[in-house]
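Sample intake sheet
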Amino acid sequence: MTEEIYTGLDVGSHAVRVAVGKLVPTSDGKEQMHIIGAVEVPSSGVNKGTITNLEDAVSSVSRALEQAERITGVPINSAWVGISGGHIISQESRGVIGVGRSDGEIREEDVERAIEAARTVATPTNYEIIHVIPKSFIVDGQRGVKDPVGMNGIRLEVDALIIQGLGSQIKNLTKAVYRTGMNIEDLVFSILATAEAVVSDRQKELGVCVVNIGASTTSLVVYEEGDVLHTSVLPIGSDHITSDIAIGLRTSIDVAEQVKLRYATCTPEEVNKKDEINLAELGAPEDEIVGRKFIADITQARAQEIFEHVDKELKKVERSGMLPAGVILTGAGAKLSGMSEAAKATLRLPVSLGNAIGITSVIDRANDPGLSTAIGLVLWGYNIRGTKGNGNFGKIFKSFGGNMGKVTSGLKKLFKSIKP
């Protein structure tokens, strides 16, 4: 019997990342996700989380999947695919139904009907629903009910968060994946998958914000009392730091990227004023000496701007400086030196770097914050499909993960047999 494999595919602006996991038994008789492969290849044809050149995007995804198959030695036929980008929006909705049973007992089908009622919200033109996330239920006026199944009542209400994306961007992403010959298990809003990898249930209960700093976008999700309180995708990321360095030093983007990776920090006060860098050693055409403190000042200014935008989002839900579990930074941009200190200073909250939890792996890269979304997609797939997964999680998202079946069914028939 073939072992069941879970694959997460994260198509980003800077890189395409793939994580592959399988279940392994633990010493106490349970099962745990073991990451057997994790790859990252440069991305092309993707900008700010959206497909801008279909052929280039297909090639990037194909290379990542081929590398993953070589590393793991197992065929990869389907994946849970992350979707992000500035086009994704969220809005509140409420579904109300009557419980028609004579004994008044609420059953699972009643919960499903209530969530379906919440789904009938007016969506903007050309937008598709990706997720309907139940936050809490109200039974005959009693608020704060987490799971109403088995309770008695005649009126059931659900407060839900609707995550929506632009239909054309959803179709472009699914088309890029299908043209590699892969099947899509489902599309998942990337930041929600990231949170599955780096946040514990305890932190979700207390109140926590996960911030994923990508190349050209920064995504965030706020949890409180175990529920998603707010999500957002900001059109600013670590590539903007590279651009600022290129402008400040009057050098090329490639040299600026090397400066950022090797010497940049968000804490200029820790840099010696006499420290200098010769840009010629990083690929510049001629000798040019620049002060490292000047680079740190540029980096700090842009990092501060990113977290000021994050703080604006927290203010929208009245949680600025008021999340007991603080902020968890993840994504490749979070690895920049001093990023956690810059976040603490701007957000006035405890900050930690997010590494994947609840998994095992012999691969060093499994601890890379840049791979947290791909690993989160693996865990998301297990939570829904796995027999030992979180039943409540699967019940909510398996039925109401979005209209992806309708959106992609035609594309699947067209592209499932096409190889690039």
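Comment: The CA atoms of residues 112 and 369 lie 35 Å apart. Residues 201-356 form a domain with the Nucleotidyltransferase; domain 5 fold (CATH 3.30.420.40).
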